Amino acid sequence: MRAVRLYDPLDLRVEDVDPPSAPPPGFVNLKVRAAGICGSDLHNYRTGQWITRRPSVAGHEFCGTIVAVGDDVSGLHVGDTVAVDSRVCCGACPACTSGRANICEKLGFVGEVCDGGFAEEVQLPARLLLRHSPSVGARVAAMAEPLAVALHAVRRLALPRGEPVLIVGCGTIGGLCALALSRMHDGPLLLADLNKERLHLIGTVTGGAPVNLTGGAVEAALSGRRLRFAIDATGSVQAIEAALNLLAGGGFLALVGISHGRLDLDPNLLVERETGLLGCHAFTDELAEAVSLLPELSPALEQLCEPIASLDDVPATYDRLLRGESAKLKSIVEFSG
Ligand SMILES: [Zn+2]
Ligand SMILES: [Zn+2]
Questions:
Q1: pLDDT tens digits, residue range 13-54?
Q2: What is the whole-number distance in angstroms between the Cα of residue 247 and the centre of ligand 1?
Q3: Residues 116 and 48 grouped into a single domain
Q4: How far is the CA of 28 from the centre of ligand 2 (A)?
Q5: In 54-63, which positions are buried (b, 16+ CB within 10 angstroms) versus exposed (e)?
Q6: Which listed ligand is nearest to 116 at the C-alpha?
Q7: Is the pLDDT at 262 greater than 70, yes or no?
């Protein structure tokens, strides 16, 4: 079968590999139906930061149809379409046992610590799988995982009713945060992104108002109301600094982007304004919520994804995305048949 495997930084190969064996107890085999490329896939490709085994089939945002079920698996059957929980946690550390497996001391991800979704078939532990509604299309079903990440960031921010909120960065996670907020929150939604095409798309789909981060645009858009809540989904230290400078006292900035570079921050800015910085990593129990929201969000999500014809196109798509050349939110390989 075809598979896309990461060997080393900048060494991603499309190869013919053996399909998975018959599933052992507790495991199932999936025929992958659609698999999205994540910013963290690109980060790992560029830097090798999370390479723990070589080679590894990349990809952790995917859906598949169950084709074989091992012994001791209950509630899952051949023919079910399932979402995949990307987190591979130890289940025993204090974080895991307190319901925060996303900050497990030994956390790894599908695609890095085990083979992932950029392959025709994959074998996974049944405990990582959640059933999709049969009405949801493959591309939309593949967006459950990033939607869970966005829902987690939104939950961490704990917005009071009616408060204005700014999303910095309208890539996958920022765009999905905006989409979630457009349905769940009743305050003004502001959007910023250097990619004007993508900014326009997310503005159209969510009703959010595009703003610049400089020159009083945020104040003008809010007609003098204070901005206290923002989400950074860029990981750009310049964007984070700009967002911090925009927040009025008593505010919070949620950080959900993967950063390159270091912040040069005067901590007095946080002290004097009582500003809180909230790190947001993956998700806790939001995947089931994301799966349940997909039927309702499906028309919007369809507008946000760009299909890729085959696994053979994945390496070139990585390079194109790293050059910032995408007007859509998520590039997704969809498997035919
Ligand atoms: Zn991801
Ligand atoms: Zn753990």
A1: 999 999 999 999 999 999 999 999 998 999 999 999 999 999
A2: 28
A3: yes
A4: 23
A5: ebbbbbbbbb
A6: 1
A7: yes
Q: Are residues 85 and 193 in the same domain?
A: no
127 and 166, same domain (yes or no): no
Residues 81 and 117 reside in one and the same domain:
yes
pLDDT in tens, 138-154: 999 999 999 999 999 99
Q: Give the CATH number for residue 259.
A: 3.40.50.720
Structure tokens at 204: 């159209």
Statement: the pTM of the whole predicted model exceeds 0.85: yes
Question: From ligand 2's centre to the CA of 149, what distance in Å?
Answer: 18
Would strands 11-16 and 27-36 be described as parallel, antiparallel, or unpaired? unpaired
Give every strand in the sheet of 209-210, ordered side by side.
209-210, 189-192, 165-168, 229-232, 252-255, 276-279
The closest ligand to the CA of 95 turns out to be 2
**Same structural domain for residues 223 and 315?**
no
CATH, residue 34: 3.90.180.10
The Å distance, Cα 180 to ligand 1 centre, comes to: 17
The pLDDT value recorded for residue 337 is 60
Report CA(286)–ligand 1 centroid distance (Å): 14
- The stretch 48-75 carries a mean pLDDT of 96
The total domain count for the chain is: 2
The average confidence (pLDDT) of the chain is 95
